[in-house]
TrEMBL record:
<dbReference type="InterPro" id="IPR002220">
    <property type="entry name" value="DapA-like"/>
</dbReference>
<dbReference type="GO" id="GO:0008840">
    <property type="term" value="F:4-hydroxy-tetrahydrodipicolinate synthase activity"/>
</dbReference>
<dbReference type="GO" id="GO:0019877">
    <property type="term" value="P:diaminopimelate biosynthetic process"/>
</dbReference>
<feature type="active site" description="Proton donor/acceptor">
    <location>
        <position position="135"/>
    </location>
</feature>
<dbReference type="Pfam" id="PF00701">
    <property type="entry name" value="DHDPS"/>
</dbReference>
<keyword id="KW-0457">Lysine biosynthesis</keyword>
<feature type="active site" description="Schiff-base intermediate with substrate">
    <location>
        <position position="164"/>
    </location>
</feature>
<dbReference type="InterPro" id="IPR013785">
    <property type="entry name" value="Aldolase_TIM"/>
</dbReference>
<feature type="site" description="Part of a proton relay during catalysis">
    <location>
        <position position="46"/>
    </location>
</feature>
<comment type="pathway">
    <text>Amino-acid biosynthesis; L-lysine biosynthesis via DAP pathway; (S)-tetrahydrodipicolinate from L-aspartate: step 3/4.</text>
</comment>
<feature type="site" description="Part of a proton relay during catalysis">
    <location>
        <position position="109"/>
    </location>
</feature>
<comment type="similarity">
    <text>Belongs to the DapA family.</text>
</comment>
<keyword id="KW-0456">Lyase</keyword>
<dbReference type="InterPro" id="IPR020625">
    <property type="entry name" value="Schiff_base-form_aldolases_AS"/>
</dbReference>
<keyword id="KW-0220">Diaminopimelate biosynthesis</keyword>
<comment type="subunit">
    <text>Homotetramer; dimer of dimers.</text>
</comment>
<dbReference type="GO" id="GO:0005829">
    <property type="term" value="C:cytosol"/>
</dbReference>
Length: 292
């Protein structure tokens, strides 16, 4: 589990103008993350626009990241869904040999009760050959996994090793950290709350903004884990405005605009997502001009 302490990055999927997967850009992006101190990579999460990739494209993304990474960093694969049986069958059939853990989002759209969420992850835990990191993101799933439910899952299933907590609620995060077993990983899924969560006992982040500023953000998290809040907050405030900007029109529109302005990718998204507005792109460009 030490592999997942620190800064993980939820990788985007770069697209060419024809909206095919830009393999070269993805290779370069992976290399940039490794060179700038990221601790692990998350493949095919929300930020990857995985909902709009077909099976062949998902495999292409996996193959590209695995090859470029070349076993240097730990890899986490996003595998979730709101059809429990189908997800379990997928977990049993998938070749997961290149990965060390699964990131599995709470069932969306169905709006299960807390007992339904527990039973879903009970089935997933039984089916998965890899350790599981839960993903609580009520803004997308329309249901919140309460700290008590996460604690219950953590204590009942040994291969559920952590949670990406993205409710955006610091009070809930602190309650969660206080409840779960000491070796259970509470990982921030909210870039703005990452440092406060780490200082409260969290183990790091699965980040979006770190993809744009890998050196600065990973250093901030490391300083937080070392118990150096003053130095860590200097870096937090340095990137803080960029976090507001990249999420103001949704993810990954903002981070793709930032990466395109940095020359890393072409700024293309698949419908129903669209590019950041010219106004937001200008605001991000202004931020980058003043960032040093």
């Amino acid at each position: 589990m030490k592999s997942f302490i620190g800064t993980g990055v939820a990788l985007i999927t770069p697209f060419k103008e024809d909206l095919s997967v830009d393999v070269q850009a993805l290779e370069n992006l992976v290399e940039n993350q490794i060179e700038n101190g990221i601790d692990y990579l998350v493949v095919l999460g929300t930020t990857a626009e995985s909902a709009s990739l077909n099976k062949e494209e998902k495999q292409l993304v996996i193959n590209t990241v695995v090859k470029q990474n070349n076993k240097r960093l730990s890899l986490v694969l996003g595998m979730g869904g709101n059809n429990t049986y189908a997800l379990c069958e997928e977990l049993k059939a998938a070749d997961l040999s290149a990965f060390e853990a699964i990131l599995s989002v709470s069932p969306f759209y169905n709006k299960p009760t807390q007992e339904g969420i527990y039973q879903h992850f009970k089935a997933v835990a039984a089916a998965s050959p890899l350790p599981i990191i839960l993903y609580n993101v009520p803004g997308r799933t329309a249901s919140n996994i309460l700290p008590e439910t996460i604690n219950r899952i953590a204590r009942d299933f040994d291969n559920v090793i952590g949670v990406k907590e993205a409710a955006g609620d610091m009070v809930q995060a602190m309650k969660l950290i206080s409840l779960v077993p000491k070796d259970f990983l509470v990982i921030s899924g909210d870039d703005m709350l990452t440092l406060p969560m780490v200082l409260a006992g969290g183990k790091g982040v699965i980040s979006v903004i770190a993809q744009g500023f890998p050196a600065e953000f990973s250093k901030m998290v490391a300083l937080g884990l070392e118990g150096k809040p003053a130095e860590a907050y200097e870096l937090h405030y340095k990137v803080q405005r960029s976090i507001d900007l990249i999420f103001s029109e949704g993810n990954p529109a903002g981070i793709k605009a930032l990466l395109a302005l940095k020359g890393s990718i072409q700024n293309n998204l698949r419908l129903p997502l669209v590019k950041a507005t010219p106004t937001l792109q200008q605001q991000i460009e202004d931020f980058l001009k003043n960032f040093s």
